[in-house]
Design a protein that fits this description.
alpha/beta, 303 residues, elongated
């Protein structure tokens, strides 16, 4: 089931185009990575999903319903924003949010007890948010987003400013939410986070979708030929140039070479068969090199 479906979405601010014909969908129970540099259009997309803005062109369906004028959908969604908290206690904020969404009495207390335990905020829930660390504030934001038990959580740069431990803890919570049937829309510009927890990603740049799919699908799509690192006695540039299926040779340190072939990744390269049969060559090291998501992300920013 598709929880989000975005079709031909475009948005401009005057003469500045923020989004251009953007298309993607998000599966139920997945962690969907929305990856892009600052200014790529990620925050504009999130504002459109929550109907804070209206698109110039295109449609958005959430839970298989068009969002135009359908404000009841927001009750099934939650936003974990990259924004400052009001300067009140965490418990007061959670109570206010719960009551706003119709929770009262025992139902409210049960929700509070559950969410405080789930997000690990019991030791600082009564303190004013202005007195909390960045990591503590992020946990309060997360608890506030989850207090009404939403089906879809949209997180806008949720790990921004967190230390490594805080980042790891937050990502673990996100993974656990997905295992329990929640759908996570995870907006970030941190590649390692996206690689760790996301089932599928979109790379956005200059308001356009640069790539979409699983990490393997994207890296395979952007791989041109096959890349290898090779090292051995008798192997040098002159020797490698003799093989017609090698299309590029790059010397590396330690008498190693990075080479690219015109192969399809499915068969043993022709030059390797020759090396195995050549008694004058002693092969010490041979490894296929995959293009990384980081390389693709950098290429997207250079477009």
């Amino acid at each position: 089931m598709k929880i989000i479906n975005v079709s031909n979405l475009s948005k401009s601010y005057g003469h500045v185009t923020a989004l251009r014909n953007v298309n993607f969908d998000v599966d139920k129970g997945s962690v969907f990575g929305f990856l892009g540099p600052n200014g790529a259009g990620k925050s504009t997309t999130i504002a459109l999903l929550f109907q804070f803005l209206r698109p110039d062109v295109g449609d958005i369906a959430i839970f298989n319903e068009n969002i135009r004028g359908n404000h009841l959908l927001k009750r099934r969604m939650a936003l974990l924003p990259d924004a400052e908290l009001p300067k009140i206690s965490g418990i007061r904020l959670l109570r206010h949010s719960a009551r706003y969404h119709g929770l009262t009495g025992q139902a409210l207390q049960t929700a509070l007890t559950s969410i405080i335990k789930q997000t690990g905020i019991s030791t600082f829930i009564t303190r004013n948010t202005s007195k909390l660390s960045k990591g503590q504030k992020t946990r309060i934001k997360l608890a506030n987003a989850l207090i009404t038990d939403p089906e879809l959580i949209i997180a806008d740069e949720p790990t921004s400013g967190l230390d490594p431990m805080g980042r790891r803890q937050l990502l673990a919570i996100m993974e656990n939410l997905a295992r329990n049937g929640k759908t996570i829309f995870f907006s970030s510009h941190v590649i390692g986070e996206v690689e760790r927890i996301c089932d599928k990603i979109v790379i956005l740049n200059n308001g356009r979708v640069f790539a979409e799919g699983t990490i393997n699908q994207i890296t395979n799509k952007f791989s041109i030929g096959d890349n290898y690192i090779i090292y051995g006695k008798g192997i040098d540039s002159t020797y490698l140039q003799q093989h017609s299926d090698i299309t590029h040779i790059e010397p590396l340190s330690g008498n190693r070479f990075k080479i690219q072939t015109n192969g399809d990744g499915l068969q043993t390269p022709e030059f390797m068969k020759n090396i195995v049969e050549d008694n004058s060559i002693v092969l010490y090291y041979f490894m296929k090199e995959s293009i990384s998501l980081e390389n693709i992300f950098v290429n997207a920013m250079e477009v």
